[in-house]
Write a structure and sequence with these properties.
The chain has 285 residues and is of the alpha/beta class. It contains 10 helices and 10 strands. The chain has a 6-stranded mixed sheet, with helices on both faces. A 4-stranded antiparallel sheet has the order 2-1-4-5, with helices on one face. Helix 4 packs parallel to helix 6, helix 5 runs antiparallel to helix 6 and helix 7 packs parallel to helix 8. The longest helix has 14 residues. Bound molecules: adenosine-5'-diphosphate (ADP) and magnesium ion (MG). Magnesium ion binds next to helix 2.
Length: 285
């Protein structure tokens, strides 16, 4: 392989793993193994406030998510949904309040890189796959690797790693597209690839911000199936406006309604849909 290509791949891998800027010394103090979930709680937010020049994007927000739960979050624009994800992933420091991953990992004390390494994956609205690389390579580059070892190239895949990539390809329904460039995928397929890339890092908690925005009806339906397959295997927080989609993934699980930076209501889909306050601020508009 040409040195230029080897260097390019190395850079891509570093970018995927969010480790390109952090020094190795500050990296890896917390690993997914260290997260204590024996009490059945994967995420615990209490009284989180985020003030931007006095404006409270989050206002004493309290919420917890169980291990293996798929929690849907709904609420009007500006309710604070994205800001909540920013706090969980370390992008925004809360002005006050407590945020724990499991019983023991204080998220407010970790950097974004450390939080990703501890096992929280986040999918942004816009897909960020490497268009010139094959679908398979995208998954391979995203794979969790030992950072003390120099990124290795494709010949070095173990059987176990190849199996993990195959299983993910099947899950995201891209087995037939595996060797084609990611740039040729449809918008929906790119979104699934990005979910697959996050899964390759074996996150304990996955945050998805509006995963079906811009998708066709068929892609939306397929995404619902995919998330239902992840239920129980991963803990998930899904922000979405498409209420039919939310109904399809919430099942009998809890839905949380945010409004003005706090939890307005929480319960089954049927309960929140029948809640007069929820109808007033969100559903009835
Ligand atoms: P949602 O995702 O529910 O639509 P956001 O979390 O994006 O809501 O925003 C919540 C509120 O906080 C909005 O009023 C938004 O304008 C404000 N906000 C978000 N980020 C910033 C920021 N960096 N500076 C100032 N205000 C912000
Ligand atoms: Mg948002």
């Amino acid at each position: 392989m040409k040195p230029e290509r080897a260097r390019q791949l190395q850079q891509l891998q570093a970018a995927v793993l969010l480790t390109d800027s952090g020094s190795d010394a500050s990296y890896g103090h917390v690993t997914t193994r260290d997260v204590d979930t024996r009490h059945g709680v994967i995420l615990y937010l209490e009284d989180i406030t985020v003030s931007f020049d006095g404006f409270k994007a989050l206002n004493k927000l309290s919420l917890d998510i169980g291990v293996g739960e798929l929690r849907c979050i709904i609420g009007p624009n500006g309710a604070g949904k994205t800001t909540m994800m920013d706090v969980i992933t370390g992008k925004t420091a809360p002005t006050s309040g407590t945020a724990f991953f499991g019983q023991n990992v204080d998220l407010t004390k970790l950097s974004e890189t450390e939080i990703a390494h501890a096992g929280i994956g986040r999918k942004f609205q816009r897909p960020t796959v490497f268009e010139n690389h094959s679908v398979f390579e995208n998954l391979e580059l995203a794979m969790k690797t030992d950072k003390r070892v120099k990124p290795t190239l494709f010949a070095k895949l173990t059987g176990e790693q190849a199996d993990a990539i195959s299983a993910t390809l099947e899950l995201i329904r891209l087995t037939h597209e595996a060797w084609g460039p990611a740039g040729l995928l449809s918008h929906g397929q790119k979104q699934w690839l990005e979910i697959g890339m996050l899964l390759m890092q074996e996150p304990k908690l996955l945050l998805l911000d509006e995963p079906v925005a811009g998708m066709t009806d068929a892609e939306t339906e397929r995404t619902g199936e995919l998330l239902n397959e992840l239920k129980g295997r991963h803990s998930l927080m899904v922000v979405e406006h498409d209420m039919d989609f939310v109904a399809s993934i919430a099942g009998s699980g809890k839905v949380t309604v945010l409004h003005e930076g706090s939890v307005l209501a929480e319960g089954s889909m049927a309960q929140v849909q029948a809640d007069q306050r929820v109808i007033e601020v969100y559903l009835g508009r």
